Structure formats: structure tokens, C-alpha cells
Amino acid sequence: MSTHTNHNYPKLHNAMWPGLVGKGSPGAEPCIDLDTMLDLTAQASVDGVRFDGVDLFLYDPHINIDINDDDLKRVADKIASKGFAIGSVVAPVWPPTGGGSAMGNDENRKKFVESIWKACRIAKKLRELGVRPYGIVRIDSASSPADWYDNPEANQRRIAETFRRAADVAEDHGERLAAEGEICWGGMHSWRRMVQLLELTNRPGVVGFQADMAHTLLYTLGYNAPEDRIVPDDFNWEPAALDESLRKLTAALRPWTVDFHVAQNDATVHGSGTHDKTGRHCLVRDPNGKLNIPKHAGFWLRDGNGRLTRSFRHICWDGCMFPNAVMMQQQTWNNILSAMIAVRDAHGWTEDGAATRPAKKAEAIVVRKTRPAAKKKVPKKTAGRPAKKKKPAGKARKSAAKKPGKRSKRRK
User: Fold this and answer.
1) Which long-range CB contacts under 8 A does 24-31 form with residues at least 24 apart?
2) ∠ at Cα 227 (221, 233), nearest 5°?
């Protein structure tokens, strides 16, 4: 007999981009096609519970960013035939995928915004087709921390200006943007700079934050920004110190959070193919994983008083750059689904009259209000300013879709 609460929200999604990220380039493993990723997701089952949907990367070989409406409908019908909804979509904003740096020259920034326009066109069409009831369009600065450090304040203002242009495009399409904080994106490489960028952009309700449990753990360590390290100098993964650092982190970023990734991390960084080093995603049962997934997810899903925020209708698993041999094992996805169910059991809710069972009492889930810890001295061994990385050559850009026209009205 199932011991789950049977909450039906948030919906449980699986990301399709682990079949693409860090793969397909010279020296990397081949990509895993969309059909295979969908099948692995559809076949996952734990106590009769299955994934509710998928989140998508709008890039070949999964979905061409310039896809026409007829082909998009065929993709939507295929996904719906698996019993899935579509949630958030990733815009290919980076130079190797046809985008451009948000702090680059005028041409770079034009390409960045054009990529957002194309992604929002697809996202809106999926809503109109009835297969996408919720979700955001995911973005980042498409800039390295090393380049950003050349002129931090000017670059931060430039990224914010580009994000505002992108927000105009999203608003015209009835969409929201979410910037995923990772240590590998300039201006978003630390929690404090991430908050600053959201405040400078100043488009609440249109531009928010996408929290990934693995990537945000690296924020607490100050990997690419030692001045913003939260954990103490002598930190050695003591549970109380970890919880305290996550309370401070989530108190700052939770009000901006509009999309959420369940993930595990071993507190190291990893890169593969053309993807720069970022927080290493681990399998949910990795013995080196530093997070208690159901407990620490609650720091994002509940406010400072322990109340559910219900800020998003679905949550998504994100685990990039795993070996293909691991990803092709069905048990991998069953274990992931089990972790997702545990998060919903602890922090979910019920709508439409579905029967529920009370969640097991777990005081550790509640996020208590605390005073921020005094800033500690940064240990000498902590990584400092990142070295510049040679930019890889990417795939040739596909033929452009119709460019966005002049807006009829602009939000003040």
C-alpha cells in the first residue's frame, strides 16, 4: 500500500536537456534524442506514481528554435500522447547556439533578444495548443564570469538593460523569464550579484529567478565569488552550518523564485563538451551528495515561517552531464522520480478534491527565521576570480525566423 500523501501539486516534471547538455561536440558523448528521453521518462514509475510532464530545451536535435507551427504541433501531440504536459522551456541564448552575450556589443545583444523572441513564440504556441498550462522561459547572461570581471558594475548594468529588452518581448507574448543562477554565468555567478541583477532589471512579475538546488549550493561556497561566500571559514559540512547558510541564501532569492529544479550536488564543479564548469549534478543516491533533497527543497518551497509559497505549479528534475550509460538505465529515472515524489509528499498540496494522506511530521522541513550570520573571512584556498576560457566554436546558426517587430506599447 502506498504511503504517499497523494498531493497532486506541484506537478512532477523531468528535464529533456540532459540528453543534450555537454554532449554532441568533439570529444563528448553523442546526444540522446528527444524520443528516447521521453520514453525513459514515461516508463519511470514508483508505487504507481509517474512523471506529470517534461521541460524542454529549444535546440537541435530536440527542437529547432526556428520550428514551424505544423512541426511544433506534431512535437506537442507526441509529448501529449505520453500523458505529459509541457512546462518550462530553455531559450538558446548563447553565441554557439545562435544567441549572444547579454553584456556584449549591440549585435550580440540583438541576437540575445532575438533568441528570446523565438523561444517566447514557441512557448506561446504551446500554450495555445493546450499542452503547456504553466512554466517559464529560462535565460542566463550568456557571459563568462572572467569577462564580467573586466568591468563588473558596467557589465552588470548592461546585462540588466538587455534583460529589460527581453522582458518587453516576453510580456508581449504573455510569458515570464527566469534567470537560472549558476557560477558559470557572469553577473549571476554569486547569490549577491544575482539579487543585484534582478533588482537592476526591475521587472518583477516578468523576470524572476530559477533556483536549481545543485547550482545554488555552490553559491554558499563562493566558488567564483569568494567575497560572497556564506559558510564559515572552517566549514566542514556540519548540518547546522549548512542549514544556516541555505536559510540566508533562500531568504534573499526565494521572493524572486518562479521556477525550481530538484537536484543533488557533491560540492564540486564539472564541465563537459562545450559546457563550462558549473555545479556538478549528482545522482539522487550518490553517497557524496551534500543535500538532503526533501528537507532542503523545503527551504525554497516554504517561506521563512514554514508556510508553502505555491509560487510555481510544477517542479523539475535537473541532472546534466551524466554518462549516457547511466542515463539509459531505467532505474536511474525511477530513483529520480522517487526523490521528486518525496519532495511533493513533504511540500505539496492538493487541488480538485483529490484524496490525501497527512505527510509524516518532520520538523527539519520547516525553515525557521534566523538572523543572518556575520560575514566570515574568506579562506585562502577558496577559488577567486575565474580564468578566462577560450570560447568554443559552435554549430552553424539555423535560418532566422521572422524578427520581432516594433512594439505597439511598452510597459513603463
Assistant:
1) 24/61, 24/273, 25/273, 25/274, 25/392, 27/273, 28/272, 28/273, 28/274, 29/323, 29/324, 30/324, 31/61
2) 50
Contacts of 409 (CB under 8 A, 6+ apart): none
Let me know if residue 390 belongs to a domain: no
pLDDT score for 374:
42
For residues 112 and 108, what is the distance between their CA atoms, to the nearest angstrom? 6
Closest CA to 169 of 406, 336, 364: 406
CB atoms within 10 A of CB 309: 13
Assess if residue 220 is contained within a domain.
Answer: yes
Distance CA 230, CA 248 (A): 8
C-alpha cell at 200: 537592476
Counted domains in the chain: 1
Residue 259 lies in a domain: yes
Among candidate residues 152, 169, 263, the one with its CA nearest the CA of residue 207 = 169
Residue numbers of the chain with a pLDDT score lower than 70: 1-2, 270-279, 353-412
**pLDDT score, position 279:** 64
CATH number, position 29: 3.20.20.150
pLDDT digits (tens, 9 = 90+) for 46-60: 999 999 999 999 999
Which of helix, strand or coil describes residue 318? Answer: coil
The rounded distance, in Å, linking the Cα atoms of 40 and 49 is 15
Does pTM top 0.90 for this prediction?
no
Q: Is residue 398 part of a domain?
A: no
Decide if 149 contacts 230 (C-beta within 8 A): no
Please, are residues 118 and 166 in contact by the beta-carbon 8 Å criterion?
no
Domain that holds residue 309: 11-365
